[in-house]
Amino acid sequence: MDTYTPTAARKNLYQILKDVNVHRRPVVISPARGNKDEEAVVVNRADWNSIVETLYLESTGTLSAVEKRRADNSGTTDIDDIDWDTL
């Protein structure tokens, strides 16, 4: 992951945005002193949406239910057998 100071990011903002979108690689903007609590990350919108969706599925327990179904190795899942209200 590339890291820029705020000054360098400001000078190269257009190129940073282009690179984040073309290469789908996040970029860190970090203060010159390197305080990790004050860093920011620039990510592609589609990647951000994926992160948010994954966090939501994990927080609701849906992700673990999907993983259990995937691990059963049956090869098929009848969608009508899923109790969507309890996920």
Automatic annotation (TrEMBL):
One matching Pfam family is PhdYeFM_antitox
Q: What domain of life?
A: Bacteria
User: Mind telling me which Gene3D superfamilies this protein's record contains?
Assistant: YefM-like domain
The cross-references to InterPro entries, in alphabetical order and at most eight, read: Antitoxin_Phd/YefM, YefM-like_sf
Similarity comment: Belongs to the phD/YefM antitoxin family.
What functional role does this protein have? Antitoxin component of a type II toxin-antitoxin (TA) system.
Mind telling me what this protein is named? Answer: Antitoxin
Which organism is the protein's source? Bifidobacterium bohemicum DSM 22767
